[in-house]
Design goal:
Nucleotidyltransferase, domain 5
């Protein structure tokens, strides 16, 4: 949605910040992402794909997995939520053809186990908060810029992994 997340902010005394927003806009930016780590958790990475004013469907998921497979040459273990698109026939057929991609699902409704949820939360609550965007393309551009800057911060990405109880800490 185009509505800004409003957080407490500082302003000069007597000058209340005013956020202008476009009401009743159904435009959106959909996203798909993966947080990866090696066996020893020394190298962490973030991969993401944004789609302007479009839902993520099986075709976009397969395209994302194909891109992920090209960038990561080692076997992959996918652990993802129980979204319908992850169970779609096209996605399952793709996974069957690529044996080095193993797929597992989180328990039903367990966002606290998913490191990608911590990435989305961080993105929304920090760089995108208090930002009034009236055009969906601008929102996509800002989200892409800040997601790319997060990609360059391996310690922050590692913190998304450490925030879940799935990844044991050394």
């Amino acid at each position: 949605m185009m509505s800004p997340l409003v957080r407490r902010t500082w302003a000069p005394k007597g000058q209340t910040p005013i956020f202008k927003e476009r009401c009743r806009s159904y435009k959106k930016v959909s996203a798909i992402a993966a947080v990866t780590t090696g066996a020893r958790r020394l190298r962490t990475r973030l991969y993401f794909s944004l789609h302007v004013d479009k839902n993520i469907r099986a075709a976009e998921t397969v395209r994302f997995l194909r891109s992920l497979r090209r960038q990561i040459q080692t076997p992959l273990m996918l652990i993802w939520d129980r979204s319908r698109i992850h169970k779609a026939n096209a996605v399952q057929e793709y996974l069957k053809r690529h044996k080095r991609m193993l797929s597992f699902h989180f328990p039903a409704y367990a966002p606290e186990l998913n490191p990608v949820e911590f990435f989305w939360s961080y993105l929304k609550v920090n760089p995108l908060a208090n930002r009034s965007v009236t055009e969906v393309e601008s929102l996509a551009q800002v989200a892409r810029y800040h997601s790319t800057s997060i990609k360059r911060r391996p310690n922050l990405i590692r913190s998304f992994l450490k925030a879940t109880p799935l990844f044991c800490q050394k």
